[in-house]
What we know:
Layout: H1 17-32, E1 40-41, H2 47-57, E2 69-74, H3 77-98, H4 101-107, H5 118-121, E3 124-131, E4 133-135, E5 141-143, H6 147-164, E6 168-172, H7 179-183, E7 190-201, H8 215-218
Antiparallel strand pairs: 1-7, 2-3, 3-7, 4-5, 6-7
Helix pairs in contact: 2-6
Amino acid sequence: xxxxxxxxxxxxxxxxxxxxxxxxxxxxxxxxxxxxxxxxxxxxxxxxxxxxxxxxxxxxxxxxxxxxxxxxxxxxxxxxxxxxxxxxxxxxxxxxxxxxxxxxxxxxxxxxxxxxxxxxxxxxxxxxxxxxxxxxxxxxxxxxxxxxxxxxxxxxxxxxxxxxxxxxxxxxxxxxxxxxxxxxxxxxxxxxxxxxxxxxxxxxxxxxxxxxxxxxxxxxxxxxxxxxx
Length: 229
Ligand code: IYR
């Protein structure tokens, strides 16, 4: 490390292995209970909970620590209605054919359509923007690095934080979603990437009977003694 680099103490807290095993298993089990929810109850959610979850998202690692994300948290019914109207207009064209047959058949098992009442019913919408580049104090463009990766990681943190706070989410991606920049009044250097719907599931909500791929399908182990196993 360079001599001039300012550093602080890491303050890493070690756990014993039994505790690590228990925590890793509990976390996996808790996240496995998360399901994408498309039917919401109108019950309100206190802003402080949303603030804390966005704080958690903002701790994500990012390229050159540029933190190239911006979150617009919306609970104003007028703005939610404007978003619903614009999103449904795009979705009508999408489902009427713009998506193409291959995409529509890949989606069919989820039972989605162009009707998006959750955009008005759910208490919070969080529009997630990616800063394609930054702008310095003199108005010059500054390149940001690994923007999709960084924003993806922050979004993962946000979804996990909301889930463990007791809230349901939907990663909604109306396409195209440039209308979000306008509605949220965001500058040109920011690209809307996900509209996260946040709230409580409606009573007796049912979700598609779909499964996660098992560990052996998503993992390859290259271990020192793998020949012996
Ligand atoms: N944006 C549309 C379509 C859609 C696309 C994918 I990929 C999904 O996993 C789910 C839906 C919609 O929200 O209906």
